[in-house]
């Protein structure tokens, strides 16, 4: 394994110090709107890049490479489907979000339903921010730095990373987060392109060479598929099956029905209702910039398969049998990891240290740490916004704008401690970081998606139906998690996690509808202001007639869908 030279260390140090200073210099905190929403002045390129950067965090980057190493190329379905969901978001939900002037997604639920849904969803989102986004990003940072500095304890590394990310989030707020995300996204893309280039150079033969060697490797039987064969799970026989985005019913990661039902459900939660992501669009200067930014983020998602997923396949071809025991990386049971097959989460770091030359290695490691800091700072800011605006402001409405900012800063410090404490438990839950992320979202998202979808498109949905379905969905989710941990119900455990998500969604829809119909209709003002009507589409059509095609988001959305169809169609 390669290591960092002095030049690499200098590059990393200069970058990390520079990004903290830059973030603080871009702070806006004269009011709560400045601190939590960047003053609502973000233009579409900033919104789009910030969305992409916050989404393609270090945890996603490492997770994508890990699953690609295990031949789960259909992980790309989560990436391209974001385009469809972002277009849906831009057409239907975003106008209501911006017109209402809300700070948080739970606040919007209160506008449509009542305060009960707001408090519940806010609490769930805060917990998810800590357990999923923040902790996973810190985990990735600890993996990379532990390989570089094995003499430093993981706990110390995690604390240092969390403090570094909080250093500009606490004083600067959302504007500091987004301004640094733009730089980090550019560096992340450049680093991913460089890594892909050097991996292909090492392999030789370009794309066709990769496919030919992948066929030979699969035919040799030297790929470790774990217990897939014994469990009757799908095992790809050739490169065409590896790169097929549509898998058979027995695929353990994403069967074809999961692509049609589960992926849209999880993607909707992540892009339309998740405070962590939507907060960037709430900071847009107007509806047009919000819509253009969302579409731009969707466009940036399309090349991910080439620069972030394919490297995982190249690692399978190049380093499948590489002895990495010298890294002394411990497995959950205490044994030392001997090759990537034992610990696929190391796929991306191994690629970095084996392939990149001095100087470039430092730059790309800085990019990986930048992605981690971007994700952590984003979740710190979004979670502190939820705590401040959904709880503290409601309990103490007399607080001034500056006092609310101070509350948000204190909340961020608390979140740093909580997230850092959870990191050691991640690898105990799952050996695949991406699987861990999707499992948590699959169990938490269905009740929330139900509340938002029925709230916008069904006038009869009321607050009682919303809170009952949210609570019942939460109880069912907890039961499924406990069943998986303690083997309470083997029948439930045998259901694919995307199937569990679908089951939760259908159950909460039925509960929401039945309870809403059995109780009083919602107040007329909530229906009039926060439900979609055909008249809105007709009115917007008239307004868009005077807009040039290249500024008309509908034309841009159609073009984006066509490009997406071409890219996805080449992998069917």
Write up what this structure looks like.
By secondary structure, the chain is an all-alpha fold. The chain has one domain (6-426): Sodium/glucose cotransporter (Up-down Bundle). Helix content is 74%, strand content 0%. It is built from 26 helices and no strands. Helix 3 packs across helix 8 (154-203). Residues 29-38 have low confidence and may be disordered.
Radius of gyration: 23 Å
Q: How many H/I helices?
A: 26
CATH topology (level 3) name:
Sodium/glucose cotransporter
- What is the residue-averaged pLDDT? 83
Query: What is the CATH C-level name?
Result: Mainly Alpha
CATH homologous superfamily designation: Sodium/glucose cotransporter
Order of helices and strands: HHHHHHHHHHHHHHHHHHHHHHHHHH
The helix content, as a percent range, equals over 70%
CATH architecture classification: Up-down Bundle
Shape from CA axes?
A: globular
Total beta strand runs: 0
Strand content: under 5%
Structural class: mainly alpha
Q: What kind of sheet is the major sheet?
A: none
Distance between the amino and carboxyl termini: 36 Å
Total domain units: 1
Protein traits:
572 residues; mainly alpha; Sodium/glucose cotransporter; 74% helix; 0% strand; globular
Write the layout of secondary structure elements.
Blueprint: H1 6-25, H2 32-37, H3 44-55, H4 58-69, H5 76-100, H6 105-112, H7 115-148, H8 154-203, H9 206-220, H10 239-242, H11 256-260, H12 262-273, H13 275-282, H14 287-301, H15 304-319, H16 347-355, H17 360-395, H18 401-422, H19 426-429, H20 433-457, H21 463-486, H22 490-493, H23 497-518, H24 524-530, H25 534-544, H26 553-569
Helix pairs in contact: 1-8, 1-17, 3-8, 3-13, 3-14, 4-7, 4-15, 5-12, 5-14, 5-26, 6-7, 7-8, 7-17, 7-18, 7-20, 7-21, 8-15, 8-17, 8-18, 12-13, 12-20, 12-23, 13-17, 14-26, 15-16, 17-18, 20-21, 20-23, 21-23
């Amino acid at each position: 394994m390669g290591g960092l030279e002095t030049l690499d260390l200098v590059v990393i140090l200069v970058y990390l110090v520079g990004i903290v200073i830059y973030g603080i210099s871009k702070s806006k905190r004269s009011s709560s709107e400045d601190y939590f929403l960047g003053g609502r002045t973000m233009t579409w390129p900033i919104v789009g890049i910030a969305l992409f950067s916050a989404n393609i965090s270090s945890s996603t980057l490492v997770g994508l490479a890990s699953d690609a190493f295990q031949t789960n190329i259909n992980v790309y379905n989560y990436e391209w489907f974001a385009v469809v969901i972002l277009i849906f978001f831009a057409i239907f939900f975003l106008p209501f979000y911006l017109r209402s002037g809300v700070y948080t997604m739970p606040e919007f639920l209160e506008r449509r339903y009542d305060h009960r849904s707001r408090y519940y969803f806010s609490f769930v989102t805060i917990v998810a921010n800590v357990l999923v986004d923040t902790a996973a990003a810190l985990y990735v940072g600890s993996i990379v730095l532990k390989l570089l500095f094995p003499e430093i304890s993981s706990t110390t590394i995690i604390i240092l990373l969390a403090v570094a990310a909080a250093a500009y989030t606490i004083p600067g707020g959302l504007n500091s987060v987004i301004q640094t995300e733009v730089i980090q996204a550019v560096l992340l893309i450049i680093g991913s392109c460089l890594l892909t280039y050097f991996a292909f150079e090492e392999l030789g033969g370009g794309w066709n060479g990769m496919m030919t060697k992948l066929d030979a490797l699969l035919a040799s039987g030297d790929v470790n598929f774990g217990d897939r064969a014994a469990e009757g799970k799908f095992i790809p026989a050739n490169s065409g099956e590896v790169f097929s985005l549509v898998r058979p019913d027995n695929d353990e990661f994403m069967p074809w029905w999961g692509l049609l039902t589960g992926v849209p459900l999880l993607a909707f939660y992540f892009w339309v209702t998740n405070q962590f992501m939507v907060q960037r669009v709430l900071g847009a200067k107007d509806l047009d910039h919000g819509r253009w930014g969302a579409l731009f983020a969707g466009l940036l998602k399309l090349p991910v398969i080439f620069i972030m997923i394919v490297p995982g396949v190249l690692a399978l071809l190049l380093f499948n049998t590489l002895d990495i025991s010298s890294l002394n990386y411990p497995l959950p049971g205490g044994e030392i990891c001997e090759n990537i097959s034992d610990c696929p989460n190391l796929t991306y770091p191994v690629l970095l240290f084996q392939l990149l030359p001095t100087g470039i290695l430092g730059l790309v490691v800085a990019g990986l740490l930048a992605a981690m800091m971007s994700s952590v700072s984003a979740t710190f800011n979004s979670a502190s916004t939820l705590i401040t605006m959904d709880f503290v402001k409601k309990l103490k409405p007399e607080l001034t704008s500056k006092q609310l900012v101070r509350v948000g800063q204190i909340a961020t410090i608390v979140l740093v401690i909580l997230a850092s404490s959870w990191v050691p438990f991640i690898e105990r839950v799952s050996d695949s970081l991406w699987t861990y992320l999707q499992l948590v979202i699959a169990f938490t998202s269905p009740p929330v998606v139900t509340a938002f979808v029925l709230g916008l498109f069904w006038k009869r949905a009321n607050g009682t139906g919303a809170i009952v379905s949210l609570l019942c969905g939460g109880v069912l989710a907890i039961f499924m998690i406990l069943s998986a941990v303690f083997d309470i119900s083997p029948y439930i455990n045998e259901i694919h996690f995307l199937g569990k998500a679908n089951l939760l969604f259908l159950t909460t829809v039925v509960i929401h509808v039945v309870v809403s119909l059995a109780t009083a209709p919602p107040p007329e003002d909530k229906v009039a202001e926060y439900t979609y009507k055909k008249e809105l589409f007709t009115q917007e059509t008239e307004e868009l007639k005077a807009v040039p095609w290249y500024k008309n988001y509908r034309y841009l959305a159609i073009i984006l869908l066509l490009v997406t169809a071409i890219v996805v169609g080449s992998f069917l």
